[in-house]
Amino acid sequence: MQFPIYLDYSATTPVDPLVAKKMAECLTLESNFGNPASRSHMFGWKAEEAVETARRQVADVLNCDPREIVWTSGATEADNLAIKGAAHFYNKKGKHIITSKIEHKAVLDSCRQLEREGYEVTYLDPSEAGFITPQAVAAAIRPDTILVSLMHVNNEIGVINDIEAIGKVTREHKVIFHVDAAQSVGKQEIDMESMQVDLMSLTAHKVYGPKGIGALYVRRKPRVRIEPQMHGGGHERGMRSGTLATHQIVGMGEAYRLAKENMVEENARILALRTRLLAGFKGMEEVYVNGDVDNRVAGNLNISFNFVEGESLMMALRDLAVSSGSACTSASLEPSYVLRAIGLNDELAHSSLRISIGRFTTEEEIDYSIEKIKEAVTKLRELSPLWDMFKDGVDLDQVKWAAH
Amino acid sequence: MAYSDKVLDHYENPRNVGKMDDNDINVGTGMVGAPACGDVMRLQIKVSDDGVIEDAKFKTYGCGSAIASSSLLTEWVKGRTLEEATQIKNQDIVDELGLPPVKIHCSVLAEDAIKAAIEDVKRKRDSK
């Protein structure tokens, strides 16, 4: 085993060696280094061909037309382009947007910006299991609603929204539907034939591709329009200017090809590992899985060990690369807004770990992690006055704490 | 976040972990912080008749720096008089452990905890 063990695949993934090989073929003088926009010579044509192959590979994952794929620098840019781009284009129709409280910051902050510009945003509450229901969306739609933006899979708790059902609602009301799918590619089936999604944000680095590249799916039928946010040479049919990064795009294409090819098999293997991990904590007291257990992507386990603070837990787990919803691990000193929004109290939010399993995780690593986590939780509970009180039968909710 | 060696040492080998009998008149308990804020410290001291802290115990729910701050404090107060113990300032803890600005509140909490424990034992004795 190599230490530390990487269990943070929801944060990012290593580039698959097959992907890295393809990317390296698009850099130097001897290889495919040309500008895909150069129309006058072979170097440009070759680069353009590589970019279009990658575009097809990405479109294949979505079951859509390659012309519906617009390259961006990542999902954050795609979210910005989709939300601000659609809002700006359709502002004559209305200025109301619907999203949820557990979206990624790229979506929430884009919405905040639009609020400053005079738009109105409704932030839906998720259910305790972490879902946004089609009913909740339908209830929030107003005559002036122009856009609904929701994520397919949540980055912290891994739960899967029913995009197909929500898409029916938005289409029926003729509202643009944007979906952030950064966490779902390669983990969940995506089909633009059956999903009535108008805009979808994608990224490469969560699926064993490189960082710094992503895409926005923009539906052609019925046609969706967006205002560009980046102006320049008119690349990507005017929607996103900037010289295309051939090596990055080729890397994303290859990563998506592999994701499609291996999805079923890979998810089964990863799910078995997660089941093994969760089973390893059986018998421990006061352990809670955050978010729906069944309807979540295979690689995600978000779990709280009550009466143990997340940062100190991670300190004990220096052999493991995991993340926590604890305030102490964030710059803002606030516990995870996602966990708070699904109704966790502060204690449980502070006590949470997100363990995400991926392509290169082994059974041996899982077994080692179980032992390490159990050991650390036991040690820290011995140190915890809250655990003492719990064991003495004190109801912690009834204690008057001196807040500070 | 990178931790100083001293924080790591206290975290790995916390000193004086434990619980004393709160009903003992010579024991003072200071419990500060709140679970909602991510840290709760319980610091207890046992004081001799002539006002010297004979023993100190702690338990802390919180980050590594909070654990280290309370562990260090138990080491420091042992053998000191109550008067001397009140002189300990949070900045002393910050300096000793090399706490970064974002962790200064852990040292403040530790200072609050020892003060609360001293108050507690004084109050108990006065009401005897």
TrEMBL record, chain A:
Cofactor(s) recorded in Swiss-Prot or TrEMBL: pyridoxal 5'-phosphate
Pathway per the UniProt entry: Cofactor biosynthesis; iron-sulfur cluster biosynthesis
InterPro entries: Aminotrans_V_dom, Aminotrans_V_PyrdxlP_BS, Cys_deSase_IscS, Cysteine_dSase, PyrdxlP-dep_Trfase, PyrdxlP-dep_Trfase_major, PyrdxlP-dep_Trfase_small
Catalytic residues identified in the record: 328
Enzyme class: transferase
Annotated positions of the N6-(pyridoxal phosphate)lysine modification: 206
Localization annotation: Cytoplasm
Aminotransferase class V domain ranges (all copies): 5-368
Record's subunit section: Homodimer. Forms a heterotetramer with IscU, interacts with other sulfur acceptors.
Entry protein name: Cysteine desulfurase IscS
Source organism (scientific name): SAR86 cluster bacterium
From TrEMBL, chain B:
Biological processes annotated in GO: iron-sulfur cluster assembly
GO cellular component: cytoplasm
Top-level taxon: Bacteria
Gene3D superfamilies, per database record: 3.90.1010.10
Annotated transmembrane regions: none
Domain NIF system FeS cluster assembly NifU N-terminal: 2-125
Single GO molecular function: iron ion binding
InterPro entries assigned: ISCU (IPR011339), NIF_FeS_clus_asmbl_NifU_N (IPR002871)
Its job: A scaffold on which IscS assembles Fe-S clusters. It is likely that Fe-S cluster coordination is flexible as the role of this complex is to build and then hand off Fe-S clusters.
Listed PANTHER family: IRON-SULFUR CLUSTER ASSEMBLY ENZYME NIFU HOMOLOG (PTHR10093)
Family, similarity comment: Belongs to the NifU family.
Protein name according to UniProt: Iron-sulfur cluster assembly scaffold protein IscU
Biological source species: SAR86 cluster bacterium
Lineage: Bacteria, Pseudomonadati, Pseudomonadota, Gammaproteobacteria, SAR86 cluster
